[in-house]
Amino acid sequence: MDFFHSFIGSFAKLFLKYLRSCVAELVSCVGWNTAEELYSCSDDHQIVKWNLLTSETSQIVKLPDDIYPIDLHWFPKSLGIKKQTQAESFVLTSSDGKFHLISKLGRVEKSVEAHCGAVLAGRWNYEGTALVTVGEDGQIKIWSKTGMLRSTLAQQGTPVYSVAWGPDSEKVLYTAGKQLIIKPLQPNAKVLQWKAHDGIILKVDWNSVNDLILSAGEDCKYKVWDSYGRPLYSSQPHEHPITSVAWAPDGELFAVGSFHTLRLCDKTGWSYALEKPNTGSIFNITWSIDGTQIAGACGNGHVVFAHVVEQRWEWKDFQVTLTKRRTMQVRNVLNDAVDLLEFRDRVIKASLNYAHLVVSTSLQCYVFSTKNWNTPLIFDLKEGTVSLILQAERHFLLVDGGGIYLYSYDGRFLSSPKFPGMRTDILNAQTVSLSNDTIAIKDKADEKIIFLFEASTGKPLGDGKLLSHKNEILEIALDQKGLTNDRKIAFIDKNRDLCITSVKRFGKEEQIIKLGTMVHTLAWSDTCNILCGLQDTRFTVWYYPNTVYVDRDILPKTLYERDASEFSKNPHIVSFVGNQVTIRRADGSLIHISISPYPAILHEYVSSSKWEDAVRLCRFVKEQTMWACLAAMAVANRDMTTAEIAYAAIGEIDKVQYINSIKNLPSKESKMAHILMFSGNIQEAEMVLLQAGLVYQAIQININLYNWERYVSLSEQGCSAYMHLKLLCYKAGMLTFPGELVREKRSCLVWTLKYK
Ligand SMILES: *[C@@H]1O[C@H](CO)[C@@H](O)[C@H](O)[C@H]1NC(C)=O
Ligand SMILES: *[C@@H]1O[C@H](CO)[C@@H](O)[C@H](O)[C@H]1NC(C)=O
């Protein structure tokens, strides 16, 4: 899971509970119509509706005797139409080679001859603009909304048992024996195919939020893949074939069905809960839209219902557990005090952070303060199903199918940022980030882009100038402390590079600077701008990431690193609260790492300009990392006296000398200019000098730039530095370009050139 995080819920345990089951003949398929209403079809040709609120079961229709249902999929709720909580129709595929479009009242609107032999699955795409069907005849066909054949996407020698749409509805994933195939709809686009199992693959699913793929096979294993076909998880072989797998809508959990077996797993593959119901094989599983319950179609004619409980959230001394569907228990681990929180409706999402618990039920939002569990603030939700809650110290965000809404902790609606083509159904905690002043959202249409908004107004930052990166971005996180003007965003890109940049993108484009490589998960501390991440086999803490802006050379000295190979594959940072980092290993166990408390104290001193206290603290702690952080902090704040002390303490003698040489400079302006240069602000430095009429000194600065340019001789920036220098020379009245000057070296200045 990822950054800042108690909010997604640190699950400790999670159980499946059986609400009910009922006997019919073999139940072949199930589908949720609303959060509380399920349709099932069985071999006795009946379509039955189950209402979980009223516990009523009713027959919708009895189909003709020759229709043996195989698969059922509800047409997606019309996007953008608020308050439409019900789907109106579904597609039913059957063993006679047809699919049927059926209204929710059970009227067969249309039956279409689709395949030779049984139609094994049919799925609407996310927009409801296309239907894919697959059959025993090995064909994959695409149909229009009204059931007109658009194309035969593929044709192969073996039956296709399962099919799923890609998140963008532009690709289709299907089974071919032991192979999985991803085929784009676009003709001639590249097809991805890989051997996924040692037996026939029976079921696949593809989640639109996390972009991960599930597969299940006769080799008795289930597996998790990324969308490039790279394996992320493979289960041990079970006793029986795995007959069903299904992602929860938010992509945090998935369910697995087999003979007398129902399992609930984390997206990384490990198992939260295992139940052994007496059901025969569970052939099909579907999650309710709000992700709180599942239903399974069972070989012995049962429909099994289960819901997710024992979800747990932790923050500081508080543990909140969802004990029943409408009840939470809050435990203060310090004094063992227990409070029970009762809700009118079913709890759908919750988040605990910054001394507040935010809970969404199917109709309302509750805000509790950790100081008072008795009187929550309650307000009605715009739309039913909240899919994500994110918190910052000042306010929190709710995301549902219709939009993104920012609220204050006293329940005031603040803003609702939007951008063209925004799809909120696929947002998660890796793709949205919130701080006191900023909302950042990674786009899906162009994954290289991050949209930035002013939190209080929801207006785009910097006149809508986007943050765009050269690679696709996987995960984003805003820092939480410090001034709005210094707000930084860290992100991990497709190459697993960790980058940082400023969110203020006015004027000169802020550079995107690489902080580290092979980073898989990251988190900012909630108390100061310290960043941590898991890097390949190391756990790394960037005590002062800003160092890359002021003195990149000493960045390595500001880090804390420790071996993390014991965390095994794919660990995730769950939270970073105070000095405590919580990491979840691939097997689901939680590990707590305490990092040194001193860097946070140093941040605190520096943010209130207590330089003497800061120096005293470093003398006391006697660690190079502390001095290196202090050096960078001092330069960033232009406190050269402290910088000199700190650089001396880490043996950076040339920098000490340079700072000394600045002190001896004759004019105020050139002092200022050199301090600016020292912290990498070469353009500002030049500006100061030019304004003071010190053109020759400005040239000198650029000569050093040119020195740098020789290292990177052909780079674009190098060339423009060269042209720029030429211009300045003309301005100073030098009509020929002074080649000698270029060769002249002032080594003490060379290293100050921070351009990259
Ligand atoms: C649902 O289960 C039936 C077995 O009863 C199976 O034939 C069918 O393919 C399953 N549906 C899907 C979508 O896999
Ligand atoms: C964030 O907001 C809270 C509440 O308004 C405030 O107490 C805190 O100082 C803010 N933090 C920052 C870094 O602005």
Automatic annotation (TrEMBL):
Keyword Iron applies: no
Record localization: Cytoplasm, Cytoskeleton, Cilium axoneme; Cytoplasm, Cytoskeleton, Cilium basal body
Signal peptide interval: 1-24
Main location as per UniProt: cytoplasm
Domain IFT80/172/WDR35 TPR: 626-716
InterPro entries referenced in this protein's UniProt entry, alphabetically: Beta-prop_IFT80_2nd, TPR_IFT80_172_dom, WD40/YVTN_repeat-like_dom_sf, WD40_repeat_dom_sf, WD40_rpt
Cellular-component GO terms for this entry: axoneme; centrosome; intraciliary transport particle B
GO biological process: cilium assembly
Keywords: Cell projection, Cilium, Cytoplasm, Cytoskeleton, Repeat, Signal, WD repeat
Residues of the IFT80 second beta-propeller domain: 310-598
One protein family per Pfam: WD40
Alphabetical list of PROSITE patterns matching this protein: WD_REPEATS_2, WD_REPEATS_REGION
Taxonomy, superkingdom: Eukaryota
Assembly with partners or alone: Component of the IFT complex B, at least composed of IFT20, IFT22, IFT25, IFT27, IFT46, IFT52, TRAF3IP1/IFT54, IFT57, IFT74, IFT80, IFT81, and IFT88. Interacts with IFT88. Interacts with IFT57 and IFT70B.
Protein name as it appears in the record: Intraflagellar transport protein 80 homolog
Gene behind this protein: IFT80
